[in-house]
Amino acid sequence: MNAHDRIVQFLKEADGYVSGEEMSETLKISRAAVWKYIDHLRKDGYGITAVPHLGYRLVSVPDKLLPHEIQSGLNTRTFGKNIVAFNTVGSTMDEAFRLGMEGAPEGTLVCAETQHKGRGRLGRVWSSPRAKGIYCSLILRPRLPPGQLARLTLTAAVALAEALRDAAGIEPAIKWPNDILVGGKKLAGILTELRAEADQVKFVVVGMGINVNTSASQLVDGAASLRTETGRIFNRVVVLRHILRSFESWYAVLGTRGRFDPVMKAWKARSATLKKRVRVTGPGGMVEGLAVDLDTDGALLVRQDSGVIVKQTAGDVVHG
Ligand code: BTN
Known about the structure:
Elements: H1 3-13, H2 20-27, H3 31-43, E1 47-51, E2 55-60, H4 67-71, E3 83-89, H5 92-101, E4 109-115, E5 133-140, H6 149-168, E6 173-175, E7 179-182, E8 185-197, E9 200-211, H7 226-230, H8 236-255, H9 260-269, E10 277-282, E11 285-294, E12 300-303, E13 309-312, E14 316-319
Parallel strand pairs: 3-4
Antiparallel strand pairs: 1-2, 4-5, 5-9, 6-7, 7-8, 8-9, 10-11, 10-14, 11-12, 12-13
């Protein structure tokens, strides 16, 4: 842990005021350095009061996705061990790709308070109001052929749905392939992009956008947030920790050879799409019928009125 993080920890664990002298002695840094770190922390938004002869006291922690806040008590093995946090960014996807190309390790998380070019599936825009949602991308290096990437996407959907259940006490549904819905409205979305060479996945970037404290007026039509759904305000750091833990454990299930079954089972149990009449617009055009099942590669099987079953590997679903 670096001196900055140790000062935060010191202040958090302190019962009241801690003197600059005590911190300087324990952390083996000069009084001037302590002051400099306190100044940095205040600029990061920490509320720290200073009283002559008594010292410093932490009165508030900022509502920001700061790496050391996310990592405190996280207990994951790789997910979120390396975090790159931005205040403002074009898209966390682009930053994650850049880092992935530079060899960033599996589990590296890129997050931002806001994105001005946030993107969704099929070229859509992902609205990212500052400090209201979680906008992040995770770098993964799975041993999967590119053709099986849909499995990872479905795994992410299951993991995210469970994390939001644990964080907010809701039971999200999943619209194929990976929209997270609550009360029929979109709460979160997942975007999977990959870098492959010679039919081998080099790395994958899984982007997640979650509407957390977004108010109704900030949401696009048909969207919901944890706030609009529950009437409560959430600590985004806590929600993000749930996501990292849940995703890491589901990713481990997927990594175990031949263990896509538990993912499929969990996905099907939350599916808002199966057994519904759907219109799927995919690369090969539009298909209409009953969504009968999920194929073992994550594709959607649609039975047309003629009885013919069509397999859709990608696309956009309209229910009903
Ligand atoms: C979708 O439902 O269409 C996917 C939305 C994915 C949005 C996230 S926000 C963080 C990451 N950066 C982006 O530009 N997009 C993803």
